[in-house]
Amino acid sequence: MNLRDKPELAERLAAEYVLGTLAGGARRRFEGWLSRDAALRQRVAGWEARLSPLAELIAPVQPPARIWDRIAAGIGLRNAAPPRRALWDSLAFWRGLGLAATGVAASLAAFIGLRPPPTVERVKIVERVVEKSVRVADGANPWQPSYVATLKDRDGRTMLMVYVGRRSDELWIKYEGDAMPRDASLELWGLDERGQPKSLGLIRSNGSSTMKLPAMADASIASFKRLAVSMEPVGGSQIGTPTGPVMYQGECHTFW
Q: Rounded CA gap, 190 and 196, in Å?
């Protein structure tokens, strides 16, 4: 596959690779592409530069000692030191990401009123350096402002991650459930400040998928403070509001 002809797909794969949600054969194929594609490595480096500073805001989360004792006993080890937990697997990171996004949103009002200075991107292509100026405000920058949400179940486990560029009409969804229900549908809802729901569509597969919005995100989901997923009859709710139990929910943050 030539990812140069599919910039949106390359962007999503790079983001998922950095977040650690790209696994198995898909991750191995992506690493093969990385070894041959300088532009793809540039995308990955951009995501790492964008997200890594947020890790400094997160306090380490150490699992209880009894967990490691149980693991050590199960595999015949004694005095085993707990392994370091990957940053992207930490629920604390995602909580911190939401808090950081909220803080950044507060300063966004001042940012919008100013024309940001141009930045220079350098991409090495066959021993040649190409330079171009881009501005955050005119949408040419791939690290555009976005909406980010993590939805959890009743036990506090992250089951759904949602991302959409503020000038995009396509939601990127990562569903962590084992499988989709066969005799029901999972429907995604946006909730405004008063808690009034509006359907965004059906989640049609587990793993990574996309969902089309009726308009760009700034126009279609800007008023939503929370997102939720309900279990509905096959095909979704017929009355425009949830009719089944709420399975997952979480805050929706403006990022950057």
A: 8
